[in-house]
Structure formats: C-alpha cells, structure tokens
Amino acid sequence: MPRAYMFAKQLRSVALAWLACSFIFGILLALLFLQHRDSEKHHIQSIAEKVHFELNSQIKEIDEFLNQAQSLDVSCPPETLFRLRQQVFKNPAMSEIGIVNQKGQLLCNSYERLNPPIQTTAPIKADGLRYHGPIISEYMEASAFVLARTRPDGYEINVLLPSDWLRHTLELEQYSGLDFIALVDSQTGVPIILKGHYSLPLNEPLFPIKRSVQAQGEFDDGQGKYLYAKPLASLPKLAIIASSNSLSIFLVAPSSLSVLAVLYLFAWAALSFLHHHYEQRQLSLKSQLKHAIAKQQLFNVYQPLIDAKTQNIVGVEVLIRWQHPTEGELGPAYFIPEAERSGAIVAISIAQVDTALEELAPLFTQNPDFKVSFNVNGQLLCCQEYLNTLYKAHQQINALTIELTERDVLSQHQVQQTLEQLVHQGIEVAVDDFGTGYCGLQYLQSFPIDLLKIDQSFVASIGLDNLQSPVLNAVIEMANKLDKKLIAEGVETPHQAAYLVSKGVTVHQGWCYYKALKINALKKITHTNTALSLANINAA
Ligand SMILES: Nc1nc2c(ncn2[C@@H]2O[C@@H]3COP(=O)(O)O[C@H]4[C@@H](O)[C@H](n5cnc6c(=O)[nH]c(N)nc65)O[C@@H]4COP(=O)(O)O[C@H]3[C@H]2O)c(=O)[nH]1
Predict the structure, then answer these.
(1) How far is the CA of 491 from the centre of ligand 1 (A)?
(2) What is the CATH number of the domain that holds 442?
(3) Where does the sequence pass through the membrane (predicted)?
(4) Contact present, 94 and 62 (Cβ < 8 Å)
(5) Quick one: which of 22, 183, 435, 520 has the fewest CB in 10 Å?
(6) Is the CB of residue 319 below 6 angstroms from any atom belonging to ligand 1?
C-alpha cells in the first residue's frame, strides 16, 4: 500500500477523532461551565444570606432596646443617663445613645445632659424604626450610622453604630473572593458598610430594591457580574448586596480545565488509534477475503431440513464458513458484511452455488425432490451473472429455494420483477427470519412469496412467558390464512418440536435434529436416513 495513501488514512482518522472529541468535550465543557456558574451563584447567595441573618438579629436586638426606651424620662435625670450608659456597656455595637426632642434637638446622650440642647437633625416627623447615615461621628472621627425610633410623645431615641465595628462583627473581611459585599440604602443604593469595590449605578433597574433579587450583567456596564440583594426583614430600607468577581463566576477552575484537557487529548489519541485500527482491520479483512476466495478457503456447510412427522431429511439450507489459516473456522457474521460492502459477495455466492451443485449431486439421484435453500440478498438479485447461475443450478436442483430477509424483499423496486421471473422458472422464494423485520405484511400479498421461515426468537419463546410467545401463534395463523408454507428455524428441544407439530408446522431446522454439517457428514446421515425411511415404508 503506498505510503502517501496510508498517511492520508491516518490523517483522516486523526481528523475524525478530533471532530468527535471536540463535539463531546464541547458539550462537557458547557456542562462544567453551567455547573460551576450555578455553584458560584449559590455560594454568593449563601454568603449574603448569612450576613443578612446576622445583621438582622443585631438590629432586632437594638430595636428591642429602642422599644423599651419608650418609658425613659426625657428630662434626662441621672437614672435615665445611668440606663443609657448601662446599655452602651452591655451592647458594644452601640457607641452612643441619644434622646432628641420633636424639634430635632439632642437633649442628652449616654455621656451627658446637654444644656442647652444641640440641634442635630431636622424636626422629627417620621414614625417607627428608621436609620440616618452614613454620618461621620465627631468623637470617633469615623463613619457611622444611626438607628432611631420615635416615641408616641414625638421624642426620638437613637443609637449610633460605628460602621467599622459592624464590619468587624459581621466578619466581612473573610469574603475575599467577592467583588464586594455591602449594606446599602435600598432606595438610593448608597453603601453604608462596604467590603470590596462597589460599582453599582444608583438607579434602575436595581434601585430601589423592594424584595430579594438576583441579577446578572444588567447592572454593571455589561461585565457579566452576578449579584444577590436582599432587604433586611427588620428594616427594609437597608439591604445586603453581594456581588461576584466576574472572573470567578465565568472561569472554571484551572484544575478542572487541566483534567478536562488531559482527558480530551487522551480520548482524541485513543479514538484516532481505534478508528485507524478499525479501518486497517477492514482493509486487511477485504484483502484477506480476496485471498480466501482465490485460495478456496470458503466452504459450504449444510443444515438439514427435517420433516418432523417422518423424521426424514427433506432438504438442506446451504450456509457458508471460512477456514481461516490462523483464526480457524469462522462463521458468516465475521465476513459476510464486509463481502457485501466490497461486492465480493457476488463471486462468493456464485462459487457457493457451483460447489453445492457438485457436492450434493449424489443426493439428487437418491431423491430428485431434495430441497436446497440458498441465502440471497438484494445485491445478488440485481446481478444477472448470479441469477444465471441460479437458473443453471435449477436444471439439476428441482426444489431450489432462495431465502431473503424482509428488508431485502423490499429493498428495491426491481426486486419484485426479478422474484416473479425466478418463481416463473420454478424457483421457490422464502422470507428468512420472518417476523423480525417490522415491515408490515402487505408485501406478502404483492410479492410472489411461497414460504416463510419463522425466526428462531419466536421458536425459542415456546413454553416461556415472554413478549414473543403470542406472536408465534399469530404468525402461524396468518401464514395459514395466506396459504404460505412454513419452516421453523432454530428448533432446539423436543418440546419446541412437538408444539410446532401440534400447530401444523412440520418442517423443522435446528440443533434438536442437526447442526450445519460438512458435506461428508451430510452424506453419511442422508444415507442412513434414506435407509431408515425405506425401512419405515416397508414396515408400513
Ligand atoms: N442458536 C441456534 N442457531 C441455529 C439453530 N439452527 C440453525 N442455527 C443457525 O441459524 C442460522 C440460520 O441461518 P439464517 O437465518 O439464514 O442466517 C444466516 C444468513 O443470514 C447468513 N449466512 C449464512 N451463510 C450465508 C451465505 O452463504 N450467504 C449469505 N448471503 N448469507 C449467509 O448468516 C446467518 C447466520 O448463519 P450461521 O451462523 O450459519 O447460523 C445459521 C445456523 O447455524 C439452532 O437450533 N439454534
């Protein structure tokens, strides 16, 4: 074989394997990416939920105090100052507590009573729990925010919370894989506590945040980041937002990618090798088959057809074998498909008919109606040389049958014409493996078919409770209605044989009687069989 040709074949295998691997691994990569993206989203969401839960509990605790403080004396006597200081010591999140009158003047705080009061905010109008901020606390010189509640008498109790302290207790520093995590004003989007790079545009579609949201790419100049935002249950004007680092959500971990890349290369190499190996094998099978035909390594075996009532051999099915020089005797499944692909089936089948004629000749003198059946496919029916061989054989074999599968019968339009010619010449047409072709049954009426060979699978179902069991009886019934002859294939047990006879199917083929035999073995048994049948006749 020329080297360039071999090289081109190898290259083709590599390219085909590459295409197949790229397709499969493309899908795998997409799945891996989706799985990674989902788990990253889940990770971000669970961080936001955790921080949300902790902050919510802290605010609830502070609000409990603000509610209790409704009863404090707003003229700020020493007992009130004591209560305020005590609370600041108890809860380190609070750095200062103040009492403000309706005009927005601070009357006292946890440090002192202010005389005169200091104007700290606009006159108090709002109700319920609320926050102000972020503000810069004069004492701490750091950012803070204020939680406040208005009493029924219009006075306000408020608490100053330093942002750094909250950031610390919420342990925001540990979330380094995120783009940012923040406590923000749900209306305006202004961050109050922040860890990371806050880059959200402070308008729609994200703000104002009314309920939990997940968003991707629509809020951050299209960089494809993912964020999860959730307003605090205790104070919905504040929300927690966590956002991904866009790289971490889109990039699958390099370790997974390297594993995938190694698998990809391995699969590519293995597939290239297997494909090339398969092609080589096919190629060598083709040339070996050529050699086998030339060296006459193919030979016929004959499986007897038995009349189950008399136990007489009434004919044979001709089957092929290959005496391979190194592999031993090979069955047709090993080489018939390749012979059909390469067209060698024509030469093989012509030689088979010629050999059968020669080998079986003595049997025709004993019994001129000895049945001989050949396996034929659609390709052979289109070959005039093969048909001529059949016609020639028919001059010696009175009862010549060809077996076709349902698929072959229906394969080409011209098959019907050929079959009609064959039948016209007196050659019988049988459908092999009948019942397995799923072809519908109309063709039985339009094609000149005389004989149906019941497939082994139906025979094997006799006595068993399986799906095939009812089909056998239906096949037999239908054949009787259409006036077709029947042969049962694959009869392996006396029980199957008896059942078939009870249903009127009397011609059997199968290991219950004989396996396929070489010519000498066949001659021996037909000799005895004839003697036996003569003895039977004489006895009768
Ligand atoms: N388990 C079991 N098997 C049994 C029994 N009785 C017979 N068989 C096997 O069933 C197959 C019957 O042949 P097929 O249906 O025409 O099916 C044939 C036929 O389609 C094809 N074939 C065989 N010889 C030729 C040939 O010369 N030319 C062509 N074109 N095809 C052939 O190969 C197929 C297989 O042939 P084989 O391997 O010889 O296998 C044969 C035979 O050995 C039994 O009781 N139990």
Answers:
(1) 13
(2) 3.20.20.450
(3) 15-34, 247-271
(4) yes
(5) 520
(6) yes
